[in-house]
Specification:
alpha/beta; Ubiquitin-like (UB roll); 5 domains; elongated; disordered N terminus
Length: 454
C-alpha cells in the first residue's frame, strides 16, 4: 500500500507548531481503531473527493478513546483534506496533554486511512483542590472538563499549557458563582528540593482563618489535641496542610498515648458563616479518628550489635514489658542507644527498628537491626579564631587527643561548658562558636574545626 501522499506546504504549515507528519509507516502497537458510523456531511463541508474510511490513534495510556475522538472531531465518511487533518492534530496538541502529536495518512481504496500518534508527558501528578470550600471536588472537576476536555484530575508535570486552561476554566466557574479570589496552581512536595508529588489548585487573596479543630472518635485528651493542632488554628485553611497535621502532629499525639496505629479521615472543613459563603468569618476543621488498639511494650530484639551487648542496649531503652508503648519514650530510647554508640566512637551507627504488632494481646515488640559502622578516632584539630589567645585556650580545652577514640559525649560537654570557659579565660565574653566534623571513612578518623564568630 503506498503511504503518505502529501504536498510540501503541509510540512511548512506544521513547522514550529509541535506537530509532525510521519513520512512512512512503522510497526505500531496499541493502536486504537475508532469505529464510528459514517455521518452525512455537515453544512459547508465538501461532499466530493476522498473520504475518511479509517481513523486510528496510538500512544495514549491515560485517556479514553471517546475523549480523544471528541477532541479530534473527525468522522468516518468525512471529506479529507490537508487543513482538516492539520486542525485535528492541532486540537490534540493544544490540549496540553501530549509532548508530541503526529499523523500519517494513506489511500485505502477510494478513501483514506488516517493514523494519529501521540506521546504523553512522562509524569502526570494528581491535583488537590486545596481551599475551594464552596464546592465539592466532583463539581470542580466537571467545571474544568467542560472547557478542558482531557482534564481528569491529573496534570502533566513541568508543562503549563493544560494548567493554564484549567485555571481559566475554574476562574470562569468561580466568577459565575460570585466567589472572590484568583485561581492558582502550584506544585506540592514533601520538602525543600524534593520532587513534586501533586499540584495544589487553590484561590488566593481570600482569608479563611481556621477557628478551631475538632477530632471525633476517641482520646487523647483535649490538651494534647490542642497542642498537636496549634499550628493549624489561626492559619488560613489549606487541605494539604490539614492532611499533613493529621499525618504528623495528630498521629504522634495518639502514638504518645500508646495508640500506635490511629487512622484519620480527610479533614472536613466548614464555614463559620451559617450561609456557607463568607470564608473570612472563619473555618472549622473536623476529623474522624479510629484510635485502634492501645499497645503495651513486649520487648526488643537486637541484631548487628558488637560494641554493646543486647542486655546493655535493652537497659538504655528503659521501657519495661507491660508498660504502655509510648512513641515519645520509644524514640528517646533509640536516642540513648545512638549516644551510647557515639560515646564509643561509632558516630555513624544506624538503627532500623521494625515494630511487630500482636493485636491479640495488644502488644508490640521491636526488632532492631544495627549497622555500627567504623569506630572513629580523633584526627587533626584546628581552631579558627581572630584572637591568638582565644585559639590557644580553645585548643587546650578540647578534650580529645589525636588518635583517641572519638567520644561524642566529650564533644558535647565541650560545647556545653568547656568552650565557654576557654573563651572567658581569653577575655572573650560574647562570641558564638561551633564544632565542625570532617569524617574520613578510609582512615576512620575525624578532623575537627572549632570555628568562632565575633
Amino acid at each position: 500500500m503506498p503511504w503518505l501522499e502529501r504536498a510540501s506546504h503541509i510540512l511548512s504549515a506544521l513547522r514550529g507548531s509541535g506537530l509532525r507528519v510521519l513520512a512512512a509507516a512503522a510497526a505500531l502497537a496499541a493502536i486504537l481503531l475508532l469505529r464510528v458510523a459514517p455521518l452525512p456531511a455537515q453544512e459547508g463541508e465538501a461532499a466530493s473527493g476522498p473520504k475518511i474510511e479509517r481513523i486510528q490513534i496510538q500512544g495514549y495510556r491515560r485517556f479514553s478513546s471517546e475523549d480523544l475522538a471528541a477532541v479530534l472531531g473527525l468522522r468516518l465518511g468525512q471529506a479529507v483534506n490537508d487543513s482538516l487533518l492539520n486542525a485535528a492534530a492541532s486540537r490534540l496538541a493544544q490540549t496540553g496533554a501530549f509532548r508530541d502529536v503526529s499523523y500519517e495518512f494513506s489511500r485505502r481504496g477510494d478513501g483514506w486511512s488516517v493514523r494519529f500518534v501521540v506521546v504523553e508527558f512522562p509524569e502526570f501528578l494528581p491535583c488537590v483542590f486545596d481551599n475551594l470550600l464552596w464546592f465539592e471536588d466532583a463539581d470542580l472537576i466537571a467545571a474544568a472538563r467542560a472547557r478542558v476536555s482531557l482534564f481528569n484530575g491529573l496534570l502533566p508535570e513541568g508543562n503549563t499549557a493544560m494548567q493554564d486552561q484549567v485555571i481559566a476554566a475554574l476562574q470562569q466557574f468561580l466568577d459565575a458563582h460570585h466567589v472572590a479570589g484568583s485561581v492558582a496552581i502550584t506544585p506540592i512536595s514533601r520538602g525543600l528540593g524534593a520532587k513534586p508529588e501533586s499540584y495544589s489548585i487553590h484561590v488566593t487573596d481570600v482569608p479563611m482563618p481556621v477557628l478551631r479543630v475538632e477530632v471525633k472518635g476517641g482520646p487523647p485528651d483535649a490538651v494534647a489535641l490542642g497542642e498537636a493542632t496549634r499550628g493549624l488554628v489561626g492559619s488560613d485553611y489549606s487541605r494539604h496542610f490539614a492532611v499533613r497535621v493529621a499525618e504528623t502532629a495528630l498521629t504522634e499525639a495518639y502514638q504518645d498515648e500508646g495508640y500506635l496505629q490511629p487512622k484519620f479521615s480527610e479533614p472536613m472543613p466548614s464555614f463559620q458563616d451559617p450561609a456557607g459563603k463568607d470564608a473570612s468569618q472563619g473555618v472549622i476543621v473536623r476529623y474522624l479518628v479510629t484510635p485502634g488498639l492501645r499497645y503495651s511494650w513486649a520487648g526488643v530484639g537486637w541484631s548487628g550489635n558488637h560494641a554493646l551487648t543486647a542486655e546493655e542496649l535493652t537497659k538504655l531503652v528503659a521501657v519495661l514489658p507491660g508498660e504502655l508503648a509510648r512513641r515519645n519514650r520509644t524514640l528517646a530510647g533509640w536516642d540513648e542507644v545512638r549516644e551510647a554508640f557515639a560515646h564509643k566512637g561509632y558516630i555513624t551507627a544506624r538503627l532500623d527498628p521494625v515494630p511487630q504488632f500482636d493485636d491479640q494481646t495488644a502488644s508490640v515488640r521491636f526488632e532492631v537491626n544495627l549497622a555500627e559502622g567504623p569506630q572513629f578516632h580523633m584526627g587533626e584539630l584546628r581552631v579558627d579564631d581572630p584572637s591568638e589567645k582565644a585559639a590557644k585556650e580553645l585548643a587546650a580545652a578540647w578534650p580529645l587527643q589525636r588518635g583517641a577514640v572519638f567520644d561524642a559525649a566529650a564533644e558535647k560537654e565541650f560545647l556545653r561548658s568547656g568552650a565557654g570557659k576557654a573563651l572567658a579565660r581569653a577575655g572573650v565574653t560574647s562570641r558564638q562558636y561551633r564544632v565542625e566534623r570532617d569524617l574520613h571513612h578510609d582512615t576512620a578518623t575525624v578532623n575537627v574545626l572549632i570555628r568562632t564568630n565575633q
